[in-house]
Please model this.
Amino acid sequence: MNFISNIWSQPKTSAAGLLIATVTIAGALSRQGVTLGTAGTGTVVMLASGIATALLGLLAQDPLGSSSTELASSRGTTAKLGAWALIALLVQLPFVSGCSGTTVAQDIVNWTPTLQSAVAAVNSTATLLAPADAPIFAAATVGFDAASNLLVGQAKAYLANPSASILAQLQYQVVAFQQQVNLALLQAGKISNPASQQHAVSAIQEVSTIVSAILSLVQSVSSKAAVARMAADSTVKTANVRRYVDEEMAARIVAGHYGEPVVLARMQVAQAEQNSVLAGF
Model:
């Protein structure tokens, strides 16, 4: 019976535990494609998760006690609840979990200006490299323009006509682009001139961050069988290019896109990378 008395004596902590459990279970159900029906433009699962996260945030900001002992205790509890609220919020973020195929397609389209800017930066980077390194870089990145245009075009097509066939094309194209980017990173890593290599890797990684975000979005609304097929087509794995990834740059790019704190984006990027590796990418 101790657990019952603990619930009664620690109502705030118990309520937080229940809300965290709700968010965690909702996130797991969402990733498995379980919706429990629709609610507005989303699903019942995502609605429950969103409400639980909001309540957890409010709970973390309850007024502090009046005495010094209560004050210290409340501060510690509030700090812990605030941290849990931040972690639980990760389940809600579209970059990690997604909501629907249409939502994901819209988010990919929203990435278009940043992706196009990154590809344009790649195209102009060759002028910054040593003469001997520029041809290597140009050959490694030659397909970026076409790949980005195809990816955005298919996202727009899915947005206009959500269908399994167009989603399959989107799945294929994002993996194809990811493979181009990963191969380009490996080629850039072979550049011997340190300054040239830094310029080359940095430019490619900006594109890589965006493509990885899009891959996570597409992965979040794909069936297990589809993700397995996508992973099988991914021959150059995330682990192969991990040493070239600047996590701080990736976090800044994601934070800028979603208008969120960089600290949250760091957690987002790490979670998305973990999901990608576990899926076999």
DSSP finds 14 helices and two strands in the chain. Residues 120 and 145 are 8 Å apart (CA to CA).
